[in-house]
Amino acid sequence: MERLSALFPSAFPALALAHFMALLSPGPDFFLLIAYAVRYRLRGSAGLCVGIAIGNGLYILLAIIGWGILRQIPLLFTAIELLGALYLLWIGSLLIRSRPQIVAGADARLNRPGFGKQLLLGLGSSLLNPKNALFYLALMTALLGPSVTLLQQTVSGIWMTSVVLVWDLLIVMFIGLPQIQKRLTRGILWIERIAGGVLIIFGSAIALRFLHSLTLS
């Protein structure tokens, strides 16, 4: 028990629960994963999962070493937020303009993006969402409290990063099941377009919020 208490903070159950509940709330990463998993299955989406997990891990690391600077430099937050809006609009437009293709077989393998491209897309989607930074900052500070040790923060960070990776992989593995693919084949183009539309809505909302703040100031 002493070893466990040294590794895990007393608030770890609350941390793990809050983090998992946040994963259940669909965000830009989720819709990007859905769009790729429907067309390319696990091999065309695994890199996205890894990139998203790395992005989350980097924000957790920044929260541990003191991401409070983000609050002290609002221009930095705004710049990241605007880059994120542009990124979501770009990805969304690509999905909306996607063309019908065969979902399975040699054609799908031929058009499947490489692992490196997948990783960069997932990393960009995660890092260009500054809400991730604020979310992890809240979890790692307010929830864990001032008495948490560096070791406990590290273990908690590794746990959350691993959960993000496993959860995303489970999503794309489920979508890649043959019986699920059969049901999704006819609507793949609409699924991609809906996912693209949702990403555009996310990006537009961020941009409109920025413009609204400018008019108020």
UniProtKB/TrEMBL annotation:
The UniProt record lists the keyword Transmembrane helix: yes
Primary location class: membrane
Keyword Cell membrane (UniProt): yes
Lineage: superkingdom: Bacteria
Species name: Citrobacter murliniae
Topological relation to the membrane, as annotated: Multi-pass membrane protein
Keywords noted in UniProt: Cell membrane, Membrane, Transmembrane, Transmembrane helix
Pfam family, one: LysE
Segments passing through the bilayer: 12-36, 48-69, 75-96, 157-177, 189-211
Record's protein name: LysE family translocator
Compartment(s) of residence: Cell membrane
